[in-house]
What does this fold into?
Amino acid sequence: MSETKAVTSTLAKGITTGLRAAMDRDPKVLLMGEDIGKLGGVFRVTEGLQKDFGEDRVIDTPLAEAGIMGTAVGLALRGYRPVVEIQFDGFVYPAFDHIVSTIAKMRARSLGHVELPIVVRIPFGGGIGAVEHHSESNEAYFAHTAGLRVVCCSNPHDAHWMIQQAIECRDPVIFYEPKRRYWDKGEIGPAPTRGLFEAAVVRPGTDVTVLAYGPMIRTTLQAAQAADEEGISIEVIDLRSLSPLDTDVIFESVRRTGRCIVVHEASTFLGIGAEIAAQVQEQCFYSLEAPVLRVGGYNVPYPQSRIEEEFLPDLDRVLDAVDRLMAH
Amino acid sequence: MSDARPWADGGPDMIQLLTPEGEFVDTAPQHYRDIAARLTDEDLRGFYRDLVLIRRFDAEATALQRQGELGLWASLLGQEAAQVGSGRALRPQDFAFPTYREHGVAWCRGVDPVNLMGMFRGVNHGGWDPHDKNFHLYTIIIGAQTLHATGYAMGVQRDGDVGTGDPDRDTAVIAYFGDGATSQGDVSESLVFAGVNNSPIVFFCQNNQFAISEPNEKQTRAPLYHRARGFGFPGWRVDGNDVLAVYAVTTAALDAARAGEGPTFIEAFTYRMGAHTTSDDPTKYRLSAEVERWKLRDPIERLKAWLAHEGKADRAFFDQVAQEADALAADVRARCLALPDPDGTAMFEYVYGEDHPVMTAEREAFTAYQESFEGAH
It folds into this structure.
């Protein structure tokens, strides 16, 4: 998997070109979703693909998420590699049964006879002033389910390469896309930088390890910049994979810094941060200078957009957590 | 014959080739009579043998559950003709998506019956290779398999295996489900997807009158076969206890699917003679008089009477099938009891196809924990 030269792209178009490359490479790859054909999806991520690959491979489905996911199972049984677009995070729930009861379990229940290499793309998260059900972060539901893998991209390069790696994976992958970063621009390198399930240290530091993913990477990098001006060195790690977690990278960093914060938009209760906090205290107990902290959404339904900025973690809330840790 | 519940006799639209008394229905639609007429005497004796053997297998499985050898069993008693008639209409390249009660279809596809016992004994969740006999794993989530079947049929279309005219290539899919499942959104969505895609699929609904304890009236206001027209394709009600009619109607529907004419909905009107499963107690919600009436519509007796009357089978044949059935029961009993319990580490196998650190770590921890006990193997 490599291309000849680096290009500048938005995150959304990085996925588009990644999908195109995967479809060029493997005729069994097909896309399914609502409005992904002529319209190119509500975020235009599939723009132009139906024109080039035809209606059989870029399928405008009926408006029924359970139907999309259930038929994706059948197509995978027939040897296809469906990439399903869920239009918005909050619309995945009708498909939940097929994801957790069928897709996650099929390999185990068939004793390895059946693999369902399905990718479910979910634009997720808030900050875009949307109406209800369009701003949710539901990754923990899927990360909790054995048999699934859950990843999240945060920049155009990863978006482009991770979607291709997800499609090549033999296991089902839930692929989270930070919708408010769709229009962020960056350089896409000629080859993937690392494996799909590896975390990346995106800013080295020595005092505090801040773990984040997706839309919160930009936020935590800004916080790290601000902290640096106050003489606090923050190491920012992009988790990239939420299931499995790249605990080697996480533990190595926390053992060095002795302090750990997990940042995500999702509610903190029983979220990714809770799992990481538990594992870090099990594995890095004697290295910790302070308790592991979580900075996340409050444990409420996603609020109305006029107050969503109060709900979402931002630079100040990350720095507040840093200050609390440094006080130990 | 009068029944307390509406539609209890199937109504005037029900397609039937053999009456409960074993008489051929000369007024049945010509098309279906023609399909039945193409069956050889050997085919017909084969149907009888299938019906008897699968009923005997089913009885043995129920007995094994009563003796504590299976955790549960879902009996097909009364539904043998619906399953054998449809199962024998399939070609090798066709693909069947069952519920958890399709023992007769599994039999027709050549799946080893002992495989069906594995999940009820708790040694696996099914575990056969669906591609081996084009028979998918049993699905317990009610109605989910109708969407899986529809997606598979969409794949068949993309492979170009529809409407070529090559009888060994053109492929149909059959989705089995019950009357209760028709209330699930998945079933309605599968009818939508199959309809708009004109997919090569047959929706085969065994209306056995009950979803555990709830009768048809709790699931639907309209007869189930009426639904198909709302989705844009034909729906038929067939006497599910008449193996000839089921075979003929399913054959016609599968032929249409393979030819590219799209989906068909078949409601096989039958009756669940036993309990929902061995954990159920139907005496709490239905009258024995109703069960007695349905005994008179038994799928095996009517075929036997017709075969004997037509001189297509004799006493020696019937006796031989009975002996074969007992031998099958003894064989599956012995092999069921010999099914090995899996090792505890089996739970970590096959969860992921590629390396997964949690699986590796937990398997190692589990093994170390087991080995920490004195005398552990």
